[in-house]
Amino acid sequence: MTNTSRIALLNVGISFLVLGLKYVAYLMTGSVALYSDALESIVNVATSIAAVLALRVSHKPADAAHPYGYAKAEYFSAVIVGVLIVVAAISIFREVYLGWLAPTPIVASVQGLAMNGAAAVINAIWCVVLIRTGRRARSPALVADGQHLLTDVASSAGVLIGVTVAALSGWERLDLILAGLVALNILWSGWKVLKESVGGLLDHAVPDDTLALIRALIAAEAVGAIEAHDLRTRQAGRMTFVDFHLVVPGDMPVSAAHAICDRIEDAIEAQVPDSVVNIHVEPEAKAKQHGVPVL
């Protein structure tokens, strides 16, 4: 089992723990804002389970039916996260509407507020672990979960302060206003997750710094060739695909051209983890004079 898979499994357990703390806090206070906080944690549980399944599928080796592998499975998990976040926001808006029509008093339970605070602290620590692990492993599913938890921490802190004020002042509708703000924050989080996930499904290129690294490696390792052009990159989960045309002298033996390709491939795969490089060799008549010059 990989470290990424272990983190994903642990994420499920922590999501259930946080959900339990927040739900008990809601029962002890009757706060709609705390209910919205607990509802967001239900989404966390569902998405953490989806992330485990997606990671398991994404690490399956390529086969005849899927020659490029299953790495994009993580993007589907991230899309599910985004959709569930939006559903949770709609559910919260419904509770706010009903509560506005018939406000209910809030119980100033110190134990309930303390439980919600403890859940927020756990999430704050855990979201850092998820985002760092996800970025290091280039896992969209873990990064999406971590980013969602980050917004959850911010909204939980605001809700905790607001509910305390509402309970002490008796201003019941402040609780509903806070719940509405939480829902808006959740919607924004869901939009960002969906946007990034759809970008991955549409084969977006690597970041500019990674592209610059790839160009530099080609220029340094293609000694004996003339130029490289039509460089293209795309990302699929943790995988990076690179392809380009390499122009060599027309009289260069096939074995020599192949050796240059091997050298470039080895350099890129060593510096860009989980990369797959495809090179199309062309004679000098195909040079375009606007590609990657060879050092």
TrEMBL record:
Name this polypeptide is given: Cation diffusion facilitator family transporter
Record-stated family: Belongs to the cation diffusion facilitator (CDF) transporter (TC 2.A.4) family.
InterPro entries linked to this entry: Cation_efflux, Cation_efflux_CTD, Cation_efflux_CTD_sf, Cation_efflux_TM, Cation_efflux_TMD_sf, CDF_Transporter
Organism ancestry: Bacteria, Pseudomonadati, Pseudomonadota, Alphaproteobacteria, Hyphomicrobiales
Signal peptide positions on this chain: none
Transmembrane parts of this sequence: 7-26, 32-55, 75-93, 113-132, 153-171
Coiled coil location: none
Subcellular location: Membrane
Domain called Cation efflux protein transmembrane: residue spans: 10-202
Highest taxon of the lineage: Bacteria
